[in-house]
Design brief:
CATH topology of the largest domain: Amino acid/polyamine transporter I
CATH superfamily of the largest domain: Amino acid/polyamine transporter I
Strand order of the largest sheet: 2-1-3
CATH architecture of the largest domain: Up-down Bundle
Distance between the termini: 14 Å
Helix content: over 70%
Radius of gyration: 28 Å
Number of strands: 5
Shape: globular
CATH class of the largest domain: Mainly Alpha
Strand content: under 5%
Number of helices: 29
């Protein structure tokens, strides 16, 4: 093995390092997290802030991490210790986070492995949603573990063994492994793009992906999500890139390597979006609905394990394309998985001088044992809360990125890193890079972190809901159809644009409710009957004759439903596709109007508007405080507002009473809510607490002084 001056092993070739770094950056998130962010944030409208974020934050921070790793020749913890002993904790912090992520990330890779096997015969069947959540995960909807899912555990063991074999010989072997497993997913994604582009309805999906909805660019949340996605996509602040750069030979082009890796990551995300959205367009065509209605955008797992398998099942040679898709995901997942493992391993070995093979074996065993928690019937809930706390709140990784940027930019000196990068690179970093590291990037990160902390404690924007699913149009339609003083007052306050889109929406929705909804109801009855039949058959409660007879009846029902759906799609839905495809935008326009109307510092209460509205005791109490204070202001203008005075919350409570069931007035008052599939809403406080735990673990590891024997030193 090629050695550098400090006896540290190095990458066997530059392509090996670049592909390994790309493999770490390009993971499962590029294939479904990035498309899911686009899906939820206006398609191509998300691409614009994402590219800006990659230029402003992604590439500069990647160069910073490569520079400190290459300069110190150490993994993240000791690299920060090189800056100053007191900063070692900032290197251990991402290591603890990496291990946490690795424990549940390996389980998701195990799911992919199982689905790769199912791809041979499309084993998920027609009802992919029911199969994934009920049959495969056997999700119990609670935090009770409820026993292990042995197919997942078996695949999980195989994944940990594969990751162990990929890295146990060192980075030179990793460099050879990635030469094979990184290019293959790119080739397979290109195949999926070509196949997707030839499908019926592909144009509809690609239009949503590539035609920007410019109104989204005015939304701060789109920019926030874009900047956060760059951190996860390029693996910034995870310690991985610092560790990988520490194995680079002395004469390595840092700036060019960073640019190649960032551009490759961006290109992979874009190509994956083409494959995903063309296929989603096909699925939307089959279901007779707009692309934005195919998938719940808050449930990213549904894209890979529900929506995409459903689309693949309908294709000619669907099993072939399913094999390509899940094999690509498998390789991407394994590559990202062993990059995290290598980062943790290098950090521990640098600190302790323990034998690499022993540390890797123990690390893999502990990781596998902890991962089993996420392989139980209640594992999805545990995975949801863990992933949500670490990732979805965006506090942990963004705050960590801010800390590292301040340490390296100010305590160590951004100019030293710039000088080191320029010594080895073909092109020179301008002085503006130092300004970016010291001022611009910290300023952006402070805004993002502060925003998330504030929203976690203060509560997310008001939720508009109809019994089960978030649907802001429900309240709008209720208000539109009502003829009371309050509803008329709200309608008069709506803009001309909202009035127009509301009228169009109601006309389009009438078509859906009158013609499509009855079919949806019939299909649900069929699915319930099928589930009951499967339970009875598995419980051996039916005779062979009863099984055959019931199966024939169910097959006939399904055939009739499919024929009816094709007729609806061709005669009603497809001719009205353009009109119906604007429903999501309509809902968002209405939601924004109503949120602006409600989320104001002016209390909406006027006696004539709420005449006949039955107010709850809580609303009466807070309203009474408000009215009493307003009366006091007439006599004493300096009278302070009540301590718990909150006009926005009072507005929500008033409208909750007026339109019971349409508004969730509390939205999120600082806690977190978890549904049966493990999705978290407003979990920023949980994320903040876990961030503090990561910080404490980092401090403990930094203070830890392991004892190393002479024998152990000789074994290095």
């Amino acid at each position: 093995m090629e050695q550098i001056s400090d006896n540290r092993e190095s990458w066997g070739s530059r392509p090996g390092f670049i592909l390994a770094a790309i493999g770490s950056a390009v993971g499962l998130g590029n294939v479904w997290r990035f498309p899911n962010e686009c899906y939820a944030n206006g398609g191509a409208a998300f691409l614009i802030p994402y590219i800006v974020a990659m230029i402003v934050i992604g590439i500069p921070l990647l160069i910073m991490e490569f520079s400190i790793g290459h300069l110190t020749r150490k993994a993240a913890p000791l690299a920060f210790k090189h800056v100053d002993k007191k900063w070692e904790f900032a290197g251990w912090w991402p290591i603890v986070m990496n291990f946490t992520i690795l424990c549940y990330y390996s389980v998701i890779i195990a799911w992919v492995f199982n689905y790769f096997i199912y791809s041979f015969n499309l084993g998920w069947g027609d009802e992919t949603d029911t199969f994934f959540f009920n049959s495969y995960l056997d999700n119990n909807g609670t935090f009770a573990l409820g026993g292990m899912r042995w197919p997942i555990v078996a695949s999980l063991a195989a994944i940990w063994v594969i990751m162990y074999l990929c890295i146990f010989k060192g980075v030179e072997v990793i460099g050879k492994v990635v030469l094979l497993i990184v290019p293959i997913p790119w080739l397979m994604l290109v195949i999926l793009v070509i196949r997707g582009a030839t499908l019926d309805g592909a144009t509809q999906g690609l239009e949503y992906y590539l035609e920007p909805n410019w109104s989204y660019l005015a939304r701060a949340t789109v920019w926030r999500d874009a900047f956060a996605q760059v951190f996860f996509s390029v693996t910034i602040a995870f310690g991985v890139m610092i560790t990988y750069a520490s194995f680079l030979p002395k004469k390595s082009d840092i700036s060019n390597n960073a640019m190649i890796i960032a551009v490759s990551d961006l290109a992979t995300s874009f190509i994956a979006g083409l494959a995903i959205f063309s296929t989603m367009g096909y699925l939307a065509y089959q279901r007779g609905m707009p692309v934005e209605e195919v998938l719940d955008s808050s449930e990213s797992l549904g894209l890979a394990f529900v929506a995409f398998p459903a689309a693949l099942s309908k294709l000619a040679f669907g099993n072939f394309f399913a094999l390509i898709f899940f094999f690509s995901l498998l390789l991407l997942g394994i590559d990202s998985g062993f990059s995290m493992t290598q980062t943790i391993l290098a950090s521990l070995c640098d600190k302790t001088k323990w034998k690499r093979g022993n540390v890797l074996l123990i690390l893999s065993a502990i990781g596998f044992i902890i991962s089993i928690i996420f392989s139980t019937r209640g594992g999805l809930q545990w995975l949801g809360i863990t992933d949500g706390a670490v990732n979805e709140g965006f506090i942990g990784i963004l705050f960590l990125g801010l800390v590292q940027c301040l340490i390296l930019g100010w305590s160590f000196g951004a100019e030293k890193l710039r000088d080191h990068a320029n010594e080895t690179s073909d092109w020179q970093l301008p002085y503006f890079w130092i300004i970016g590291i010291r001022f611009i990037i910290p300023f952006i990160l402070v805004i993002l972190v502060s925003w998330n902390i504030y929203s976690g404690f203060k509560g997310v924007p008001m939720e508009l809901a109809n019994d089960e699913f978030a649907d802001p149009s429900n309240l709008a339609i209720t208000i539109n159809n009502a003829d009371d003083p309050l509803s008329n007052h709200i309608k008069e306050s709506l803009s001309a644009e909202s009035t127009t889109v509301l009228t169009n929406f109601i006309a389009s929705k009438a078509i859906y409710d009158d013609l499509v909804q009855p079919h949806v109801d019939k299909k649900q009855i069929y699915l319930n009957a099928k589930n009951e039949f499967e339970k009875a058959k598995n419980g051996k409660a039916l005779s062979p004759e009863q099984i055959n007879q019931t199966q024939q009846q169910l097959d006939q029902q399904k055939e009739q439903l499919d024929q009816l759906w094709e007729s609806l799609r061709d005669t009603i839905l497809e001719p009205n596709r353009k009109r119906y495809s604007n429903l999501q935008q309509t809902k968002e326009v209405l939601a924004e109007e109503i949120n602006v109307f409600i989320n104001t510092d002016t209390v909406l209460y006027q006696p004539q508007l709420f005449e006949g509205v039955a107010l709850t005791k809580d609303t009466e109490f807070f309203l009474g405080q408000y009215l009493s204070w307003r009366q006091d202001l007439v006599k004493y203008p300096d009278t302070p507002a009540p301590k718990n005075y909150d006009p926005i919350r009072l507005n929500r409570m008033l409208l909750q009473d007026a339109y019971a069931g349409m508004i969730n007035p509390s939205a999120n008052v600082g806690g977190y809510f978890i549904d049966a599939r493990g999705r978290l809403i407003g979990n920023n406080i949980v994320s903040f607490i876990i961030t503090l735990l990561f910080f404490l673990f980092g401090v403990i590891l930094a203070l830890w002084k392991p004892k190393v024997t002479i024998t152990e030193m000789k074994n290095q």
